[in-house]
Amino acid sequence: MLNKKIRVLVVDDSILARKIIIDGLSTYPGIEIAGYAINALDAKNKVKQLRPDVMTCDVQMPGMTGLELLEKLLPEYPLPVVLVSSLNLGVFDALHAGAVDFVRKPDGNQSKEEFVVSLAQKVIVAANAKVRAPRAVKAKEILTPPVLGNVGERVIIGLGASTGGTEATLEVMKRLPEDIPGMVIVQHMPTGFTKMYAERLNRLCKMEVREAKHGDEIKRGLALVAPADLQCRVARTATGGYYVTCTAGEKVSGHRPSVDALFTSMAETVRCKMLGIIMTGMGADGASGLLEMRKKGAYTIGQDKESCVVYGMPAVAYQMGAVCEQVSCENIAAALLRRLKIKG
């Protein structure tokens, strides 16, 4: 039915937090509050009774946590979940358990109004997202990547993602070798979380991963994650080396950091071999920048529709001719390494 409202179940043990979320989301004509739950057990019962379209869920709750709730709930009721989290590592475990996206709880750096706007936007996106609970990938689904030989030439890889991208990017990164050419990653994420995300990737992947700092050299075996709320671009030294700039500035394509800002800088600056990867996310950020990269000779890879949580950014890039090859999330690493393989 057209114009059907998105029915939301709000799960939070804090009376104040519930009020802020319920009052805030209720002001959006396309959103309807189906009900609320005061803890995880209450939430399990309310999901069965109310059958909401989307659930917002606190990560830290007494008794059963938000993570434990999702691990028990989503296999039976795979509904889209938007996490509401303080600056806490648990949010990434909950995303791994199948949550679609997350927002940061209001603090001294963010107003309640900004929080509600962000939450409402993510609820609307989540209503049309695919819920992907963790699964063991069968060997036959994975293309065996070639061993990366001694790459004599310099190569730079750019990767951009948004909704669903924290886990999708991990799926790619954990399949790449320790000596991968230098990478720069833009993942849309609230302030404070990019450092923790980089540390998580660093623990789980073979190469070194860290949050980028202004002036960091792009080099083999290192992946740099753009810091939240700064634009991250690639720049070239006088001697032909490459580094990242991380600066304040206007949003590009609605985001800071922006995938378009990164990809466009690569198209304008990089004179060596380069590759671009665009992954799951709402909107079009990165599509035009990826097209510029392809026009400059870059090989470009897009995540396919079936494996995306939200087939937005890769769809726009594909439709405008920016993508050389579309593959599943699980096979992006193999596609990348095939392209980098040195003959002989």
Give a verbal description of the structure.
The protein has 344 residues and is of the alpha/beta class. The chain folds into 2 domains: 6-126, Rossmann fold, CATH 3.40.50.2300; 139-340, 3-Layer(aba) Sandwich (Rossmann fold), CATH 3.40.50.180. It is 32% helix and 22% strand. The protein is built from 11 helices and 14 strands. The chain has helices spanning 15-25, 40-50, 66-73, 90-96, 112-126, 165-173, 193-204, 259-269, 287-295, 313-319, 332-340, and strands at 6-11, 31-37, 54-58, 81-85, 101-104, 155-161, 182-187, 208-211, 222-225, 231-236, 242-247, 273-278, 299-303, 325-327. It has a 7-stranded parallel sheet with strand order 8-9-7-6-12-13-14, sandwiched between helices. Helix 2 runs parallel beside helix 3. The longest helix is centred in the middle third of the chain and has 15 residues, at 112-126. The radius of gyration is 20 Å and the shape is elongated. Mean pLDDT is 90; it is low at 136-142.
* Architecture (CATH level 2) name of the largest domain: 3-Layer(aba) Sandwich
What would the principal axes of the Cα set say about the shape?
elongated
Report the strand count: 14
In angstroms, what separates the terminal alpha carbons?
58 Å
Q: Summed up, what is this model?
A:
This protein is α/β, with parallel strands linked by helices and 344 residues long. The chain has eleven helices and 14 strands.
Topology readout:
Blueprint: E1 6-11, H1 15-25, E2 31-37, H2 40-50, E3 54-58, H3 66-73, E4 81-85, H4 90-96, E5 101-104, H5 112-126, E6 155-161, H6 165-173, E7 182-187, H7 193-204, E8 208-211, E9 222-225, E10 231-236, E11 242-247, H8 259-269, E12 273-278, H9 287-295, E13 299-303, H10 313-319, E14 325-327, H11 332-340
Parallel strand pairs: 1-2, 1-3, 3-4, 4-5, 6-7, 6-12, 7-9, 8-9, 12-13, 13-14
Antiparallel strand pairs: 10-11
